[in-house]
Specification:
Chain lengths: ~300, ~270
């Protein structure tokens, strides 16, 4: 059956598996990312996020399965696939011999692009790097180097941009300006794939999220559905102890406060009744709607396995 | 941003490797005091010391060539070979260790394009240093300017720099730390260069070491290069050319296969 190129997903992983020695880094990953999506890839350290992105970028070869960017196989049709992909790597890497402008000019040149100076000026302006255009890369702060990495990923105008934990160790101001810029790229039609440890960022930015654990997809759904699926209340209770029936229900304990995930307000009523029945004094009680962090923790604990199986 | 205010970008297929070559040239040119001037000075010191000590003691090619004149092409070729190796190997290992090699690996450049850019960059540095050494040593041995067959020298300089640029690429791909690269350089390249007849004609060696020299491909590079200067050599220049060209082709095939498989480049 003929499929129009524009109907093909921006990114497609099909049955991707990869081992590193005895470690099964990826174990049958099937994910499709539609064109124009802002897609989040979440998981704890070692879940396989960076390996999956590295396979997409041609930096790691899969043992099994296939990956495509805009319909181009990353192995068989690597030239076209790489033209469609911009990657912002996790590490702050740079070539100490060159200036910011030279770095961007070289990167464009590797893609066979000529007459790019106007475009590079535009990128520099968007990333607030114009004043540093002729500075050596060594002379830049960490935040500025991070912005140059973003510029390098954009310089060939790829339709798909992958950001691998781009805000790790970045100050709040830069993080905000970076996200504003990435949102703008997404609005203009770029497909964005983001891995991050900051779950509030994923919640605010990503329309759809895949959660990885030990090389497998354990949840794949829209951010809205994931939150709705685990809808509930988080209670932060400051008390001497929990009632006997609630022992072991706290998913976190800090500074004398117990954090409890409650399915609905009826559970809250039961909690208050149990506290009263056992004569436990409540010093403070704060309530909040479930956020992505709790969804993430629940899924990583295995509570979401059944629900996610249908999503894969 | 996608369209941007700027005109659409104009991609020219098959031109990406030229930018990588340009980067490789700029990389050594920006620190030319270290990458060109320093090796020229080192070669000059070799010439001053060895020529002063040995000029009246060593007869070469049955006394037809003075020792200083004999030494000049050897030093020129040694500089070409060592600097071609240094360029590709150091560029690659630095990119690997600092991590910026990722920006080359993420591009659509093919294994042949990567190979061509790195090796041509290495050849350019090797030949630039060789020309520098040739220029400064002329003052000490002006007769070498009257070259008997300069095209032979050009051919061996080009092939020799390509071979060492390729070996540098292999070493850079293989090494994961600077000391591994240093081991490759100090235990393979340096002995092979020094024992190839840079400082002596192999006819002055005992028979065993003469035979051993014929197993060293570096010997053919230097002997063939020297033939272009004096029209005399330890072995036939055609044989040297065949061996050197065969070695170059075999190494290129090996390196292309390594890059194609992504060995130690792509996990």
């Amino acid at each position: 059956m003929h499929v129009a190129p524009s109907a093909l997903p921006a990114v497609a992983f099909s049955g991707i598996a990869r081992r590193f020695g005895e470690v099964r880094a990826l174990d049958g990953i099937d994910i499709e990312v539609a064109r124009g999506e802002f897609f989040g890839l979440l998981g704890p350290n070692g879940a396989g996020k960076t390996t999956l992105i590295s396979i997409l970028a041609g930096l790691v070869r899969a043992d099994r399965g296939s990956a495509q960017v805009m319909g181009h196989d990353v192995d068989a049709d690597y030239r076209a696939a790489r033209r469609c992909l911009g990657v912002v790597p996790q590490e702050l890497v740079f070539d100490p011999f060159f200036t910011v402008r030279e770095t961007l000019r070289f990167q464009a040149g590797y893609f066979g692009l000529t007459r790019v100076d106007d475009w590079i000026d535009e990128i520099l302006a968007h990333l607030d790097l114009t004043a540093k255009a002729d500075a050596n890369m060594r002379a830049l702060s960490g935040g500025m180097k991070r912005r140059v990495l973003v510029g390098q990923a954009l310089v060939h105008k790829p339709p798909v941009i992958v950001l691998d934990e781009p805000t790790a160790g970045v100050d709040v101001e830069l993080r905000q300006s970076l996200w504003a810029f990435v949102r703008k790229l997404n609005r203009e039609g770029h497909t964005i794939i983001l891995t991050t440890h900051y779950l509030e960022e994923a919640e605010a930015l990503c329309g759809r999220i895949a959660m990885l654990k030990a090389g497998r997809v354990v949840a794949l759904d829209t951010t809205h559905n994931l939150l709705a699926q685990f809808a509930g209340i988080t209670a932060k209770l400051t008390a001497e102890r929990l009632p006997a029936a609630w022992a072991g229900r706290a998913f976190r304990r800090e500074a004398g406060a117990f954090h409890l995930a409650l399915a609905h307000y009826g559970e809250l009523e039961r909690l208050l009744a149990d506290l009263s029945a056992e004569g436990i004094a409540v010093a403070a009680l704060a309530l909040a709607e479930t956020d992505l962090e709790q969804v993430f923790l629940k899924i990583m604990r295995g509570e979401g396995e059944a629900a996610s199986a249908g999503a894969r | 941003m996608r369209g941007g205010r700027t005109a659409p970008l104009e991609a020219r297929e098959g031109r990406g490797w030229l930018m990588l070559l340009r980067k490789e040239l700029l990389r050594f040119w920006k620190v030319s005091f270290q990458t060109i001037a320093a090796p020229v000075l080192t070669s000059l010191l070799y010439l001053l010391v060895f020529a002063h000590v040995l000029e009246s003691h060593v007869a070469v090619y049955d006394g037809r060539v003075g020792y200083t004149a004999f030494l000049v092409p050897g030093l020129v070729m040694m500089a070409v070979l060592q600097n071609a190796f240094a360029n590709s190997s150091s560029s690659l290992i630095q990119s690997k260790i600092t991590g910026n090699l990722i920006f080359v690996l993420l591009t659509p450049l093919s294994p042949a394009e990567l190979f061509g850019a790195y090796v041509l960059g290495a050849m350019a540095r090797g030949l630039a240093v060789g020309l520098g050494v040739f220029a400064v040593t002329l003052w000490f041995a002006p007769p070498v300017l009257a070259m008997a067959a300069p095209l032979w020298s050009v051919a061996f300089a080009v092939l020799g720099s390509a071979i060492l640029g390729t070996l540098g690429l292999i070493a850079g791909i293989w090494a994961e730390k600077f000391d591994q690269l240093a081991a490759f350089q100090n235990f393979l390249i340096l002995p092979a260069t020094f024992l190839s007849g840079v400082f002596y004609s192999i006819h002055s060696l005992p028979p065993f070491w003469q035979a051993a020299s014929h197993l060293n491909p570096f010997f053919y590079m230097i002997d063939g290069f020297r033939y272009g200067f004096f029209g005399v050599s330890d072995t036939s220049p055609w044989l040297s050319l065949a061996i050197v060209a065969g070695f170059a082709v075999a190494l290129a095939a090996l390196t292309l296969a390594l890059i194609g498989r992504g060995w130690r480049l792509r996990a």
